[in-house]
Design goal:
The chain has five helices and five strands. It has one domain: Rossmann fold (3-Layer(aba) Sandwich), CATH 3.40.50.2300.
């Protein structure tokens, strides 16, 4: 299964670095320079995971991912920041439903592994939800058959 990863950062060199790190993976990579651009991408494309900068003009990465968590609950979020603070990290994880919080510069291998694990976990959640729905439908059919 090919996953789509959206990279959001207002610094083009950071986007280029993320593409370099992830180009060997079998991901479809999309990019945006602002949260507003990223929101437009989400309206047009199915995205599985977002890697977002925290400090961007207009809307922070945490605010953006909190919005994403409400509108697209299956999308996984990862935050990158050059200026980490404990309150920002806690807000990102609690309000933005963020899977992981990285400080810049981050270890490229750690980031790639984290993205892979996050997508595996997402796939398992989706599959689990699908199996639960099948089980519920089967239970209804079994109950209806017993009443005949």
């Amino acid at each position: 299964m090919t996953h789509t990863v959206l990279l959001v950062d207002d610094e083009p060199n950071i986007i280029a670095g993320l593409i370099r790190v992830l180009h060997k993976e079998a991901y479809t990579l999309l990019t945006a320079n602002t949260a507003e651009e990223a929101a437009q991408v989400l309206d047009e494309k199915k995205v599985d995971l977002i890697v977002s900068d925290e400090e961007m003009p207009g809307m922070s990465g945490t605010e953006f991912l909190a919005h994403v968590a409400r509108e697209y609950p299956d999308i996984v979020g990862i935050v990158l920041t050059g200026h980490p603070t404990l309150p920002t990290a806690l807000r990102a994880i609690n309000d933005g439903n963020v899977y992981q919080f990285f400080t810049k510069p981050c270890n490229e291998i750690d980031l790639a592994v984290t993205i892979r694990r996050a997508l595996e976990q997402k796939d398992l959640k989706v599959k689990s939800r699908e199996l639960l729905e099948v089980t519920k439908r089967q239970s209804v059919l079994i109950e209806e058959a017993r009443m005949l």
